[in-house]
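Q: what does this look like with uracil bound?
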Amino acid sequence: MIRPAELIQRKRDGEELGDGEIAELVLGYARGDVPDYQMAAFAMAVYFRGLSPRETFALTDAMIRSGETLDLGAALGRKVVDKHSTGGVGDKTSLALGPIVAACGVPVGKMSGRGLGHTGGTLDKLESIPGYRVELTTEEFVEQVRDVGLAIIGQTGDLVPADKQLYGLRDVTATVDQLSLIAASIMSKKLAAGAQAIVLDVKVGDGAFMKTIDDARRLAETMIALGDEAGREVVCLLTDMDQPLGAAVGNALEVREALATVRGNGPADFSELVLYASARLLALSDLGVGEAEGRRRAEAAVADGSAEAMWRRWIEAQGGTADESTLPAAPVVRVVEAPDDGAVARLGAIRIGNAALRLGAGRRTKADTIDHAVGVVCIRKRGDEVERGDPLAEVHARDEASAAEAVEAVLSAYELGPEPPHRHGVVLEVMS
Ligand code: URA
């Protein structure tokens, strides 16, 4: 039997641990034999010393072995593709991409997470839809993917329980933003859920865990290597998180924006990312099409209404009301006006994310409840020119006091300059 204290010490001193040692530690933690305080110390040692590629794979593999795995591909008799984001502000990509890809004939069965801190979670967004059930049994999940073509649920308790525990621990011990730990956490869930090909959206910028393109590339390389080792195809999109994605930040607001995008009326940057990622997924699927044809089909599904029809079938199959008028709306809406003439030089994602968090759209601790109605709508984005008094953004709040505080916070996220900055697309790089 391993002694956790010895492994912590060896990792602290920069040693490489063996596969069996890592497996014993992780499986012991999942069983409750290794206490939180030792696992927290181990995570901190990893934070400072890192993990070798071999150790990262051993950690991923052990986390997968801590629970059950799902072979969705075998259950459906299809090649299963999946998509995951490393987390950002205003990131509602799965909500729009799911119906588009499913409408193109590729089944989508997605397990998503909740938001923590300034990043939002797909499950919280979906829970703003009255009646929507995020918890399905594995049988219900498989059946819905087979019959409807699309299901998005919370990770079942049996899948990668070690990650669930470890993620919660990392979140309160300042050890989330460590590259190997993020890579193992994300890839263990994707591999355990049976995806054969995965599109990973690696967010880069002030609203993301990875602040620089170099760090994002290293995370992408690590996840691609983990996929390789497990015999799965992985494509990483490195995408802009220096400003919020799209306009809406906040749960019900984001659901409305995702639906508008499925109808072809979404914000430009968000629509571009959704169509780009959809095309990549279709090209990795068993449809036998390339990326250009994938893009054409994704655009056609939006234009001919089949993606919207899929949205309705999916939401209703999962118990929700697809009629957007039933989404909660905040009682107080305040406009944030441009203090001067100029162009938006910067729109800080983390400031907008934190403003939405303080309005009640997110959780500061795991026990917090969410106000699904509140949030921020960034009407103007980086590069847009404005005149003094033009609306920059809207704050959707529960009361006047929180609205006033958020208006100040949102204003501080906007930096106006004399000239628009150099424009670039939302997809910065693609690695595979
Ligand atoms: N998302 C995850 O699932 N895990 C991490 O560690 C970070 C982001």
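The first strand starts at residue 81 and ends at 85. The chain is about 45% helix and 15% strand.
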